[in-house]
Batch of 3 targets.
Target 1
Amino acid sequence: MTNLHHLAGEAVKNALDRGLTVATAESLTAGMVSAILADTAGASGMLQGGVVAYQNSVKVDVLGVSPDLLAAAGSVDGEVAAAMAAGVRAALGSDIGVATTGVAGPEEHDGKAVGTVYIGVATADGTEFFDYGFSGNRAEIRGQACGAALERLLAALSS
């Protein structure tokens, strides 16, 4: 977790320096990203909040993800991650939205292999997603997804 806390510390510092706020929408990480950000002193000045959207109904009803997209692509999809990020950015009024979705295992989900992870990022400039293939057990994959989300947040804060 030390590396995660280091990434979170950098993200909090960069957000505070730039006067930007962040919100998270998390499926497979179930709140880990926002929790690690909140472990960092100063987080209250940049973290708007987070939504744990484990179920598709939450992705649709709270984050505004298209039910047609979910039906066509499944929940583990890059466009879904981007839509989650945009949805949480709008819902919580933040400058940046970061989202996680993926398969932590032990079985594949929606035809996607264990370790498949998508990180969505939404800013005023638009949304994008990044795909990853991690390995390890459930906890390790979730930890790697959290790290990837923090890295993508840092990149968005640096652009």
Target 2
Amino acid sequence: MKTKIILISGLAILLVASVITLRGQEDELSGVDLDQDKPKYEIQLTEEEWKARLNPLQYAVLRQQATETMFSGQYDKFYKKGTYYSAASLQPIFSSDTKYDSKSGWPSFWDPISDDAIRLVKDTSEGMVRWEVVDSKSGSHLGHVFEDGPAPTGLRYCLNSAALIFVPEGGTPPKFKKDNN
């Protein structure tokens, strides 16, 4: 019984000492971004707002990292001139000038429209390491990038059609019906 009391007392003393130590460090920690490794995105919506903005397939792909069945997307074998926009943020992300037939079953591009249109996020799901391609304004899932593409980049940005909105050359960029941001 005495051993249990001593152990519990010792743990209580350690706990109090830890709290006192942390409180003493509060001034040092204020101003430090504890979430600095988590990317910050310009567009921040609740899941309900995303569900209202996107159709069910878009929501599954863009917000839940789903993948369309290969060869099922509307832009897989689609080669009109124009610009591909993110269905999440409506920012331009890829041009038809860099689109090619990778024979993978998904729309593929060898380069984004600009360096800041997308971000790459390490993806270790499904027992492998890949690089997820996300919309730089919302962090929404677009697809993955692989190192088996054509010159000049050698990259294959393999995307989901549901994540994209195509606007023909000279067309009007898309706008949200209800602009939440």
Target 3
Amino acid sequence: ARGRVGGSLLLLGAVACLAVPLADGAAKTALLAVGFGLGGSFATVAATTVAELAPPARRGGALGTMNATVTTAGLIAPAVVGSLVDSHGAAGYQTAVVLSGVLLLLGALAAFTLIDPARDALRPSV
């Protein structure tokens, strides 16, 4: 359920972001809200998945590593979007949304294929 539910959230977010160039007005705003809202909601699924899979002695480190990795996007994204806007003007914002959609799609594919707590629970812990 974690991989499929989380992957579905990311997939729906990706579809919404990738559809932004096809929409106008209020529909564009709604797609942005749905795309980034559903994509962001995966954090809840990710935290519970990491907590379930990590051995108790390493749970805090695993959650901290996940948090550090995820929040790095907060450092990188403004520079990337700023660069896109500098080079493409206002169209750079739409390019950034499409790029976000592609990243959400890659995350969805990874979630569908890599998250399997039942399988991972059978692996010996190191």
